[in-house]
Predict the structure.
Amino acid sequence: MLPDDLRIIESQLGRAPRGVVDIAHRCACGAPDVVRTEPRLSDGTPFPTSYYLTCPRLASAIGTLESQGVMREMEARLHTDHDLAAQYRKAHEHYLIKREELGHVEEIAGISAGGMPDRVKCLHVLAGHALAAGPGVNPLGDEVLKLVGQYWKGSSCAPGPVAAIDCGTNSIRILIADVDEHGTLIEHAREMRIVRLGEGVDSTGEFSQAALERTFAACDEYKTFIDAYGVKSVRFVATSASRDVSNRAAFVQGVHQRLGVTPEVITGNEEAELSFLGAVRGLQNLQSPVLVVDIGGGSTEFVLGDVSERVMIETSVSVNVGCVRMTERHLVTDPPTRVQIAAVEADIAAAFDEAACTIDFSKAKTVVGVAGTVTTVSAMALGLDAYVPETIHGSTLSLGQIEELTGVLLEMTRAERAALPFMHEGRVDVIGGGALVLRELARRTNPVSIQVSEYDILDGIVYRLAGTGS
């Protein structure tokens, strides 16, 4: 549970939450919508509702169902549908087992909630249980959620502009945008600052003071954007390194003081879904399966999915090779030596072999590359006199182009790379390491060319924050 969650829950309920243990489920926008509660409150009161629904929009939609007599109809079916009744009793038993994990309360022993196992007294309880436990556990809770449908779709849980911040190993980026009623993203601001938060982490296990100061300075700047655009909701997603470093508390506290939000290390599954959702936005004629590859500073993420009817993730994996990590570990001279390059190639090949245990590269009919390495190499292939996102987005890179440009970049000195008109100053030192990762991707997926996307996890976060459920 994040520190901001209790504040959000209090706003949802209109009162201070009681007995919250953790977040049992989150809305598509990232906010809590079901909390797990203690079976005995701090004042000694027994509290049987282990999964408590907090989302006001969902609660309102369920209240409408209750007013339409859905509870009576469901309860009547329990007396005639023996399979349904058996499943409902299992849901009751599951509820009791999960609550007992939090402690035994004699006064409510054997009593679950919502009317289970024989009656239907509260659809909110059944829906909360279904969200927390997942599909197939509470049959009537699943029915409630199906009847409600995508209650978040088409309007925002926090009306007005929203902000997504992605803090990676190399850069910190912000996107401020609205999503209209048609699901179209209306961009207000998109900024990136190279802060090298992960500088030296591979060897020291902590964020350096200089890296923290650079990151906090960027946060101060982003706060002015957030205020200027009247942002209603902010989500800050951080690199997994922020979970593992020894001075994590300093990072979390510094961000929270400046932005009022807590850096969140999301699960690999959610990161994959958000990255995929953002990356495919605005690209035309995509053939499924689509492989989205995000080459970051410390890691590279692979997501295989389908976009033929709606976005569906098949599988995903992350490996620990990225432009910063490879540069710091091996590419230490200017320009790097053949021995150093060979060491990077060996690390990358091993990482791709690891990824291939999860991702079948041969299945991809479309490959989409995102993040600064891919877009910078595309700008180089296009011969641009400046970095032009509109031109880069939707461009393609062949294996031959990537092979040639990777070789050129590795032979250049730092001064020569810095002189390239499209090269961001923060990418000058690490582009060689990133290009080697990109080259391995092109080799593994050849003859499919790589389609370049300027959109990524930031766009996916905004869609979710805006409550579109895309």
